[in-house]
User: Which sequence fits this backbone?
């Protein structure tokens, strides 16, 4: 542990030092580059005055080290150059600094020199006769700057490495010493002691973790039991339609069905297949919710519009039972996962239709408060006994198994609803009485800050 802390501190110190060094070098580079350009401007202005007064005689006598001097005629021909043969030089009229000087009186550019084959700063001054006097100097590079400061930089780096190594080692030992002396079996005994004041959060965390481990163990055992029961229930639920399909198919295969009964048998096979398909889809959806496999994309959406879409999708099913399904409320903007909100609204409305009386009513209401939005689905159906209301959200739990089979219920719809509500850190309530109908009330926060993402 001490070694890791030492490495972390040492690397952090070296990183900060190198970053500071780079910042300093960058600042120095900018400073010297600016200084170099200013000197070039001043030299160009002064020399241009001399050329304007004395012409070529001034240039023949002028001696400035490290500067390239060029005199260009109005038509771009090179009249003088102290570092190249003017006869072999190209026309300079199109050079950017020449063009700028001709237009504005003074021009500057930084570019690659075709004559000297390196990067140059250029400054050009238009003379009274229309010709242009130009001076240039090799651009200062980062490498040349580093080379110039090589000796002091190497010395500073060496000293910094040694100091950071020593300091990192001492700090790491000081940090680790009190931690190594802790009795992990009884961490609470160190609370309040001055030497361990800084690590009290760690001691508290260790104690909390011990309690959490015990709780996690219980939850894992409970989850294993739930998975075991779920697997058994899935097997049972899938066997039922499969046995029915197999039985009907066997009768048809052996020619034991009358001609007029073939169509009803085929309809039964189709119905059982559809029931099995719906069951498998519900199992997949519930598994995704359990594992977090559903696309958790939080978006700005309107719960009222989502509920309205769910109601529209169930119009045909409601019409088949002559059930009136109405939706009331107003626009309810929330930050949520749209597909999960749709699943909540759809499953609640679907159940309200399936377990309703012929010619009954379903009322869907959406109401928004300051920090939450409420979705209510109320029906005039068969109702739920009070003894069953606490268990209806369990997987495969059915209040009336014969009615569930008749309407094609899988016993997973309310489990899916509960999981979707929990993901939004919401809550769901049920109010019901046998023979009087049921009302499911879902409350979800309006904004992500109110939910556990």
Assistant:
């Amino acid at each position: 542990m001490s070694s890791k802390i030492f490495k972390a501190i040492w690397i952090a110190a070296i990183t900060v030092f190198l970053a500071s060094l780079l910042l300093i070098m960058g600042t120095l580079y900018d400073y010297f580059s600016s200084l170099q350009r200013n000197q070039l401007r001043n030299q160009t202005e002064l020399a241009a005055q001399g050329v304007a007064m004395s012409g070529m005689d001034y240039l023949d006598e002028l001696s400035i080290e490290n500067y390239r001097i060029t005199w260009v005629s109005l038509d771009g021909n090179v009249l003088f150059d102290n570092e190249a043969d003017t006869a072999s030089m190209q026309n300079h009229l199109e050079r950017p600094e020449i063009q700028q000087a001709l237009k504005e009186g003074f021009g500057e550019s930084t570019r690659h020199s075709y004559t000297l084959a390196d990067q140059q700063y250029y400054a050009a001054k238009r003379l009274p006769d229309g010709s242009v006097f130009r001076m240039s100097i090799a651009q200062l590079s980062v490498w040349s700057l580093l080379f110039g400061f090589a000796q002091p930089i190497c010395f500073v780096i060496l000293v910094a490495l040694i100091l950071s190594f020593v300091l990192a080692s001492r700090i790491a030992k000081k940090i680790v010493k009190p931690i190594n002396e802790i009795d992990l079996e009884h961490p609470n005994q160190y609370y309040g002691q001055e030497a361990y004041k800084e690590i009290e959060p760690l001691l508290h965390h260790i104690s909390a973790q011990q309690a959490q481990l015990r709780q996690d163990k219980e939850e894992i055992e409970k989850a294993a039991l739930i998975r075991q029961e779920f697997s058994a229930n899935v097997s049972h639920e899938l066997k039922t339609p499969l046995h029915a399909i197999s039985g009907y198919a066997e009768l048809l295969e052996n020619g034991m069905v009358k001609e007029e009964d073939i169509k009803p048998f085929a309809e039964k096979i189709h119905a059982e297949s559809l029931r099995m398909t719906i069951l498998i889809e519900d199992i997949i959806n519930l598994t995704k919710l359990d594992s977090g496999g559903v696309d958790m994309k939080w978006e700005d959406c309107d719960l009222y519009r989502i509920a309205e879409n769910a109601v529209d999708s169930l119009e045909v099913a409601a019409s088949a039972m002559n059930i009136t399904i109405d939706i009331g409320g107003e626009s309810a903007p929330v930050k949520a996962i749209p597909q999960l909100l749709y699943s909540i609204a759809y499953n609640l409305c679907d159940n309200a239709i399936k377990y309703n009386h012929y010619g009954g009513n379903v009322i869907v209401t959406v109401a928004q408060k300051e920090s939450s939005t409420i979705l209510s689905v109320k029906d005039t159906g068969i109702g739920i006994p009070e003894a069953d209301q606490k268990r209806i959200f369990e997987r495969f739990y059915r209040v009336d198994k014969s009615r569930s089979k008749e309407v094609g219920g899988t016993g997973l719809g309310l489990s899916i609803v509960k999981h979707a509500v929990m993901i939004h850190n919401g809550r769901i309530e049920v109010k019901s009485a046998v023979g009087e109908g049921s009302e499911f009330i879902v409350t979800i926060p309006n904004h992500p800050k109110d939910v556990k993402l």
Notes: The chain has a mean pLDDT of 79.
